[in-house]
Amino acid sequence: MNEKILERKLTAKVKSMGGLSLKFTSPGFDGVPDRIVLLPGGHIGFVEIKTTGLKPRPLQVRRKRQLEQLGFLAYCLDAEEQIGGILDEIRSS
Predict the structure, then answer these.
(1) Between β-strands 43-49 and 20-23, what pairing exists: parallel, antiparallel or unpaired?
(2) Per-residue pLDDT tens for 44-79?
(3) What is the chain's Cα-based Rg?
(4) Ramachandran region, residue 42 (left: φ > 0; alpha: ψ -120 to 50; beta: rest)
């Protein structure tokens, strides 16, 4: 599935849960995930979105690892079926 379609589906699902799916850009700090997901109750997660079958670049893998080492949830989404599980994990964190 195309990255843009997955991004729209994720954003719509987050909105239906009462949350925000914010586009994340960080000038001067490449490789950050595409979206910051904020859910009611103070739950936060970072999501890198990839076209189905594509893998994150090495820098993106390092950034994901950095976020996880700081205690944040970070995911790579490449299939629509993953959206529910990712959001359930963020919501239960």
Answers:
(1) unpaired
(2) 999 999 999 999 999 999 999 999 999 999 999 999
(3) 12
(4) left
